[in-house]
Design goal:
Elements lengths: L1 E5 L3 H10 L4 E5 L2 H10 L1 E5 L3 E3 L2 E3 L8 E4 L6 H8 L6 E4 L6 H8 L4 E6 L2 E4 L4 E6 L3 E5 L6 H12 L4 E3 L3 H22 L14 H15 L6 H14 L6 H7 L10 H7 L5 H16 L5
Parallel strand pairs: 1-2, 1-6, 2-5, 3-10, 6-7, 7-8, 11-12
Antiparallel strand pairs: 3-4, 8-11, 9-10
Helix pairs in contact: 3-4, 6-7, 6-8, 6-9, 6-11, 7-8, 10-11
Bound molecules: pantoate.
């Protein structure tokens, strides 16, 4: 399959590098990473140890059958506009936060799939990505149900050794992932601690509260998830990634804009009742972004 991975951050580089084993992959990213990959290939270290040969460019390629979008949620619209130049058979969003698939579908004619990934990845230096933990990709039609596109993309991933499940229940998976991110990301970023720290306090805590509020919001939209299960999943993810620094903590440490709008901010926007923990987390992260001139 001819695949364009749009976004050469940690997950995009890892997924692109793994897919390059069996597919023709073009990774769209920033200049220093692109130059390093063009010169020496992409080095994958950590839990997967190999070198991948793939094309790396800074603008969209002329052709691709599948686009995998891995950019930050606030760059989704720009990615969608750039991808309009390519005649695609399908698009897969592998991004954090909610609302990305809708933005892609609004700009692109090709069908859009939703996906979640639990692989841990960290971009160390240009041309290198470290796989910090093996995980799983779950993908499928955004509104649930089955599609031949989802089956063929699932097959392409599996052929490349990526643990993949094609799901007919993506709305549930997306809300579950949102709840975990709502619980872990802003709390770790504000407290400047690794994931494990936010669920170490016995009893009630911010992370569990935020995850429960997220799921209660999803339930109002017809998603069948239990708040107590979401709190438990948040604890398990935080425990299994205890030493990792969440993506939002990494954003804050590098002085970059965060994905707060698509995570806790999305919960606040969609809830038609008070969600005080998500409101507080959103307000504090936005205050930090504004103070650092990262939002208007
Ligand atoms: O955004 C992240 O960092 C990850 O999705 C998660 C699950 C919080 C683990 O670090």
């Amino acid at each position: 399959m001819e695949i364009c991975v749009f976004g050469a951050g940690s997950l995009g580089s890892l997924v692109g590098g793994l897919l390059a084993d069996n597919h023709q992959v073009t990774l769209v990213g920033r200049q220093p990473h692109v130059d390093a990959i063009e010169a020496d290939g992409l080095a994958i270290t950590g839990a997967v140890d190999r070198s991948a040969t793939l094309n790396a460019v800074t603008t969209v390629p002329a052709t691709a059958e599948l686009a995998i979008v891995t950019v930050k949620s606030f760059d989704t619209e720009a990615a969608a506009q750039a991808l309009q130049a390519v005649e695609l058979d399908g698009v897969l969003s592998l991004q954090n936060g909610m609302g990305n698939e809708e933005q892609l579908a609004a700009e692109l004619a090709a069908p859009v799939l939703a996906g979640t990934a639990t692989y841990g990845a960290h971009r160390t230096e240009p041309g290198t990505v470290e796989c910090t933990g093996l995980g799983e990709v779950v993908l499928g039609p955004t509104d649930g149900g089955k599609s031949t596109l989802a089956d063929s993309v699932g097959k392409a991933f599996t052929e490349s050794g990526i643990e993949t499940t094609v799901s007919a229940e993506m709305p549930r998976y997306l809300w579950e992932k949102l709840a975990v991110n709502a619980g872990i990301n802003a709390a770790t970023a504000l407290a400047r601690v690794p994931n494990g720290a936010v669920v170490e306090t016995p009893g009630e805590d911010v992370a569990r509260h935020a995850a429960r509020e997220a799921v209660q919001t999803g339930r109002k939209q017809g998603v069948s998830l239990e708040p107590a299960d979401a709190a438990q999943t948040t604890v398990s993810v935080a425990a299994s990634t205890a030493r990792n620094r969440s993506s939002m903590l990494q954003d804050i440490e590098s002085g970059s804009r965060t994905e707060i709008d698509a995570i806790n901010g999305y919960v606040v926007e969609q809830a038609n009742r008070p969600v005080p923990v998500n409101e507080t987390l959103t307000g504090l992260i936005k205050t930090w972004e504004k103070e650092n001139d990262l939002r208007l």
